[in-house]
Design a protein that fits this description.
Radius of gyration: 19 Å
Number of domains: 1
CATH topology: Pnp Oxidase, Chain A
Structural class: alpha+beta
Helix content: 25-40%
Number of strands: 9
Strand content: 35-45%
Shape: globular
Length: 201
C-alpha cells in the first residue's frame, strides 16, 4: 500500500517524527510489536553480528535501547560504535533502515528504564547471565522461580546493565508496493538538520 505523502514526510522534516507516527500506524494495521528491530553491530575487525531487540524510547534526536554490558553486542559497541537497525512490518507493508552511532547512556537513564520493565523481566536479568554457557536450562528456570518467590523487593538495576543511545546518521523509510515499485525516502543527517532524497526501488 503506497502512501507517498506519508513516506515523503507528511509535513514533517524530521525522520524520527515520521517514524514515531509509523509506529502508531503499524499497531493499527495489526503489527503485534513494532518495537522489535534487528540490531546489527560489528567488531573492531569488521565481523558483523545481529540480534533482535526492542526499542525502548524515542528521544528528540536518538533511539534508546537497553542491554546487559557483558554481551557480545555491548563488547562490540565498545570496539566499534557504528550500528545498523532494521524494522520490518509486513502487515503494514513498511520497512525502516537506520545507520548511526551508539553510545552508553547516562546511568540514571539506565536505572529509569530498568525500573519500567515488568518484574518478571527484571528478575530474569539477575537470574540468567545472558549468552553464557549453561549445562541445563531448567537450572535457570529454577533460579528464576526461586527469586520470584523469595525476593522481598524488586531488584535494583545491576551495575552491568545499561541504556544504549543510538543517534542516526541515515534513515530510510520504505513503503512497499504490490508492483514492487517501492517508495524509498532517504534522510541523511547534515549538521543540525536533515536532507532528503528519493531512491529508485
Amino acid at each position: 500500500m503506497s502512501e507517498p505523502g506519508r513516506a515523503r514526510g507528511g509535513g514533517d522534516a524530521h525522520p524520527l517524527r515520521i517514524l514515531e507516527r509509523w509506529f502508531a500506524e503499524a499497531r493499527e494495521r495489526g503489527v503485534a510489536d513494532p518495537t522489535r528491530v534487528a540490531f546489527v553491530t560489528a567488531s573492531a575487525a569488521g565481523e558483523p553480528s545481529a540480534r533482535t531487540v526492542q526499542l525502548k524510547r524515542f528521544e528528540q534526536e536518538s533511539l534508546l535501547f537497553t542491554s546487559t554490558l557483558y554481551t557480545r553486542k555491548a563488547r562490540e559497541l565498545a570496539e566499534n560504535p557504528r550500528v545498523a537497525l532494521l524494522f520490518h512490518w509486513p502487515a503494514a507493508e513498511r520497512q525502516v533502515h537506520i545507520t548511526g552511532a551508539a553510545e552508553l547512556a547516562e546511568r540514571s537513564l539506565a536505572r529509569e528504564l530498568f525500573d519500567e520493565r515488568e518484574l518478571v523481566r527484571r528478575v530474569q536479568t539477575i537470574a540468567s547471565r545472558q549468552g553464557a554457557p549453561i549445562d541445563d536450562l531448567e537450572q535457570v528456570r529454577a533460579r528464576h522461580a526461586h527469586l520470584m518467590h523469595t525476593l522481598e523487593a524488586p531488584p535494583e538495576c545491576p551495575e552491568d546493565w545499561g541504556a544504549i543511545r543510538v543517534t542516526p546518521a541515515s534513515v530510510e523509510l520504505m513503503t512497499e508496493a504490490p508492483d514492487r515499485i517501492h517508495e524509498r525516502a532517504l534522510w541523511l543527517r547534515e549538521g543540525d538538520g536533515w536532507s532528503r532524497s528519493l531512491l529508485s526501488p
